[in-house]
Each structure stands twice: as C-alpha cells, then as structure tokens.
Amino acid sequence: MFRTACNSQERAKCLLSIDKLSDVKFVVSLSLHESTTEKFRMVIPAHRFLLAIASPVFYVMFCGILAERNNYIDLSDCDYQGMMEFLRYIYTEEVGFNGDNISQLIYLAEKYMIPSLTNRCILFLREHLDSSNIFCVLKHSKLIENKSLWRSCWKFIDKEAKDVLESSEFFEMDRSDLIELVKRNTLNVKEIELFTAINKWAANQCKKLGLDTVERRQILGDDIIDNLRFPVMEENEFNVVKSTNLLTKEKTQEVLNNFADSRWPIRFLRHKRQYDSSSQRRTLYHRGQILDIFD
Ligand SMILES: *[C@@H]1O[C@H](CO)[C@@H](O)[C@H](O)[C@H]1NC(C)=O
Ligand SMILES: *[C@@H]1O[C@H](CO)[C@@H](O)[C@H](O)[C@H]1NC(C)=O
C-alpha cells in the first residue's frame, strides 16, 4: 500500500486514521450535541511525527520537556467529524466543511496554530456571507482577529441592512456589535426600520433575561438610543416610536420641538444614513463627532 504512493501527500493519505504505525490516539465523542451521560466515544489513531511537523502546539505536546506520554488523548472540545476533517487537512491538505460545521475547524486551526487552515476558512466565509450567518461570521472575525474579514462583514451588513435586521439571527447579535451598528452612517435602511428592529432586539433580550419589556430602555442604554436619528423620520413614523414608549418624555419632547423648529437644539443626529456602494470610505459618527474613518 505505501509503496505505490508516489508523493508525500499520497503517502500521508495512506496513514490517515489507520492504526498502522500509529503512536497516539485521540478519543472524541461522536457528536458534541449528545447528552453527556451517553456520549459515544470514538478513537482516532494518528501519528505524532506528522502532527508535530504541522503544528507548533502538537510539537510542544509531543516533543517538549513536559511531553505527553499517554498514548490516549481525550478531547472534549471537538467531535469525531470535526477532528477527522482537521486531521485530514494536516495529512493531505484536503478538507471538507460547510457553513454549518466550519466553526469547529476554525476553532481547531486556532487552537493548534495552523494559519493556513484558518485562512482557508476565512476565504470560505468571505465568499459565503449571507444574512443568516453574518453575525456568526462577525463573531468569528473577532475571535480570529482578522480585521479584513471583520470589515467585509460590516460592508455586507451595510448593504443588506434591511434583510439582516429582519433575520432571526439578528436577535443573537451582541450588544457591543449593536452599538457599532447603530453608529454606522452607511446602513442601507430607513431609520424607522432600524428603530423597529432595535426595539424588537431589546424586547427579545428582556425575554431572555426574564425581564418585563418595560426594561428595554435600560437594556439598550443611552449609547444605543442616542445614536438613533429620530429627526430624519417622518412625523407619522415618529408616532410609531412614541407608541413604543422607548424614549423618555424629555427626549420625545426634544424631537417634537425639533420637528416644529429645526433650530431647536437636539442630541440626535439630523442627517440620514447614506449607503453608497461605490464609496470605500466608511465614517462612524457619534453625537455628531466623526469617530473613525477607514478604507
Ligand atoms: C461538514 O459537513 C459535510 C457534509 O455533511 C461533511 O462532508 C464534512 O465532513 C463536515 N465537516 C466537518 C468539519 O464536520
Ligand atoms: C485575514 O485573512 C486573510 C485571508 O485569509 C489574510 O490574507 C489576511 O492576512 C488576514 N489578516 C489578518 C490581520 O490576519
């Protein structure tokens, strides 16, 4: 079997997951989602030498002063298929994943420090952004600290803002990302639609935390609410805002006064968000101040 393999990739492929010459076994569960009591354990045979030359983490694990002597290594942070695909990449540079199961590979690539695999995942994610996975990818982009993927996510959110805000994934958005979102000048969405989505996000958050929906104002806080641009709404749209009771009386009055006389001082920004597909400049505003400009 080994004799017919004509290059190193083919030779390594012959070794993948067979016991022959194996000197280490990974013990993983069949699925991460099984209940812990009845986890079905699987054993994956591997080869220290191959792992150590692919990953500095395995190198230390097998060759360092505190080298692992145990031949069986229990892994509880990945499942059989995830580990198999990860090893397949190490042995053969081939790997199979899709939008639903890429997380484990990104995790393993980071944990064992294999940047070429991380890059492969990034390229895939960048080409497969859609409104159902965008917040998940945004989280990944922060986890792996890839600024360019992070920017691609925000560009996508700008462009598809309406769809993104209507997706159920939107409810999973972190509060810190929501602050980022509401500060964006370049969202392709009407202010009233943005308001409605954020109000729903807050109501959902209250539900999750077992709070009354009255608490939405506290959940959002001034840093989100004050970055909404009520003055750009039509008056009938602002009536919708009023009916939610999200704004304090004082802020509501401020907006109404400003509708009546635009010279009235107001804390909210008064210019519409502008999506411009041709523009590479992205500007963030906060209380009328330009915070950050990047390409
Ligand atoms: C992801 O799912 C595909 C299709 O079921 C499968 O071929 C692939 O091995 C899976 N990858 C991982 C990392 O689980
Ligand atoms: C982000 O990922 C891309 C594509 O893999 C890569 O070319 C780039 O160097 C990465 N940037 C950072 C800061 O890691």
UniProtKB/TrEMBL annotation:
Keyword Transmembrane helix: yes
Residue ranges occupied by any BTB domain in the UniProt entry: 22-99
Listed transmembrane segments: 49-67
UniProt xrefs under Pfam families: BACK, BTB
Domain of life: Eukaryota
Record keywords, A-Z: Membrane, Transmembrane, Transmembrane helix
Protein name, UniProt field: BTB domain-containing protein
Source species taxonomy: Eukaryota, Metazoa, Cnidaria, Anthozoa, Hexacorallia
